[in-house]
Amino acid sequence: MGRSTALCAVLLIVAVVGGSAWTAGAARGSRCKAVRTAVSRPHSVTVTEFGAVGDGVTLNTLAFQNAVFYLQSFANKGGAQLFVPAGRWLTGSFGLISHLTLSLDKDAVIVGSTESLEWPVIDPLPSYGRGRELPGGRHQSLIHGHNLTDVVITGGNGTIDGQGSVWWDRFNNHTLDYTRPHLIELMYSTEVIISNLTFKNSPFWAIHPVYCSQVLVQNVTILAPPDSPNTDGISPDSSDNVCIEDCYINTGDDLISIKSGWDEYGISFARPSFNISIHRITGSTKSGAGIALGSEMSGGISEIKAEGLHLSNSLHGIRLKTSPGRGGYIKNIYFSDIFMTNVEFAIRITGEYGEHPDESYNPAALPLINKITIRDVVGSNISVAGLLEGIQGDSFSDICLSNVLLDVTLDRSPWKCSDIKGYSNLVCPESCEPLRGEAPFHSAACYLAEGLRPQDSHMNQPGILPVMVASL
Ligand SMILES: *[C@@H]1O[C@H](CO)[C@@H](O)[C@H](O)[C@H]1NC(C)=O
Ligand SMILES: *[C@@H]1O[C@H](CO)[C@@H](O)[C@H](O)[C@H]1NC(C)=O
Ligand SMILES: *[C@@H]1O[C@H](CO)[C@@H](O)[C@H](O)[C@H]1NC(C)=O
Ligand SMILES: *[C@@H]1O[C@H](CO)[C@@H](O)[C@H](O)[C@H]1NC(C)=O
Ligand SMILES: *[C@@H]1O[C@H](CO)[C@@H](O)[C@H](O)[C@H]1NC(C)=O
Ligand SMILES: *[C@@H]1O[C@H](CO)[C@@H](O)[C@H](O)[C@H]1NC(C)=O
Ligand SMILES: *[C@@H]1O[C@H](CO)[C@@H](O)[C@H](O)[C@H]1NC(C)=O
């Protein structure tokens, strides 16, 4: 063992011991500022009052639609709750209204119909110009909303099951007519809470807030088989003031993926994703990343803080994806307290991701990637520490790595970097040459956003790791 390998090994032991202490001590108040504190509604109805039958066979689309329609009259009287009792409630797509709480019993399962006619086709998003998978419209999500404010979707861990396998099959056998639907999509909405629920088998991305502000996603479980295509967990898209915490996500693609529109459509729509906080996410993904930014990022992504990611048996830990033609930016991003085991690529930046909506994109529209800080990372059984590839002639700068300790199994070139620049400090194995500048932490280059500062990151308490290094 060379000196630097030995040093990495010692640091890892210290870090892993420190890490488990951190996990045990992590119980733990909410760090999301409540969008609205405990909303209680003066009126409540149960979906059975509108003829719904929870036998798993009867189609209840009309019952849900009628219940929501009826509750409109309470919107200006403090709002109302629609309660879904224990049972299996088969339904097609239905819409929500403002000042509504959709509340599921712990044994309630809302089950998405496998008939695609029950998921009407709607216009593409203006920031995408077309459906994400196919030109033209897209199927409407199972639960959707447009122009809403003050919406809560919650339950004592009740379930929303999209029965996605027919959609995955149609994707795999190329018989989809339009882009697949989400389980929940809210557009142009504010003051949204999604909490205390389990989401299963989404046809496509599970939770998709788009053009939204003030969104809280808390304490949800999202499950889909490891080989289900594009079943991303939570995808805030052109949305701001979003807080996501305490989620367990085990799906076929990115656990959390932040986006903001696609190529020329995203550039002209120009609605960024910003001020997004993510805390305490646990999960696995065989073909995606724990947290991904992009690849659709043409409206810009900034002021993102993600702390406390526990990832196992996954392809990528942290991933940034972009491409010439996207334009936009990804800047002022802060990741910390990341624990990974059995992960192939701990950190990956892909500058040439490709995938364009049509031939009209402008290849000269280059994305700006700046101030990406990744610190306090411990990884065991990692195949590749970092594959960091920018775009020739573009600027991917101020990439800062600090206190990143990875037990890398493929020994030769654990870091591969091209067309990026930045800094590193206490990185094992030693980072690639373009990142070897001494990290100017607490300077403006390594990002510590005002208002997005880490609050109780134990691993970067002064002393612990630097002392170990000094004593070796
Ligand atoms: C949402 O609001 C916009 C602007 O106020 C309006 O043009 C649009 O028709 C509304 N959409 C729905 C579905 O209410
Ligand atoms: C998370 O949800 C479960 C089940 O709904 C509940 O028992 C638990 O108290 C919730 N935890 C938090 C922090 O809200
Ligand atoms: C909620 O239910 C899911 C699936 O049934 C389960 O895996 C999870 O542990 C439950 N979550 C809580 C907080 O009880
Ligand atoms: C594709 O998958 C769908 C859903 O399972 C199935 O109904 C259809 O028959 C399949 N088509 C072909 C051509 O395999
Ligand atoms: C989630 O459930 C817990 C425990 O029942 C409750 O205290 C909390 O308020 C719920 N969260 C939301 C946002 O409804
Ligand atoms: C960021 O969003 C949170 C809600 O998640 C909000 O409470 C906070 O005020 C926002 N911060 C800024 C600087 O706007
Ligand atoms: C190491 O991680 C890889 C996945 O990256 C996995 O296939 C392998 O089984 C893991 N090895 C051990 C010893 O856990």
From TrEMBL:
SUPFAM superfamilies: Pectin lyase-like (SSF51126). Residues 1-21 form the signal peptide. Pfam families: Glyco_hydro_28 (PF00295). One of its GO terms (biological process) is carbohydrate metabolic process. GO terms for molecular function: polygalacturonase activity. Keywords: Glycosidase, Hydrolase, Signal. The keyword Signal applies. InterPro entries: GH28_Enzymes, Glyco_hydro_28, Pectin_lyas_fold, Pectin_lyase_fold/virulence. Belongs to the glycosyl hydrolase 28 family. This is Polygalacturonase. It comes from Iris pallida. The lineage of its organism: Eukaryota, Viridiplantae, Streptophyta, Embryophyta, Tracheophyta.
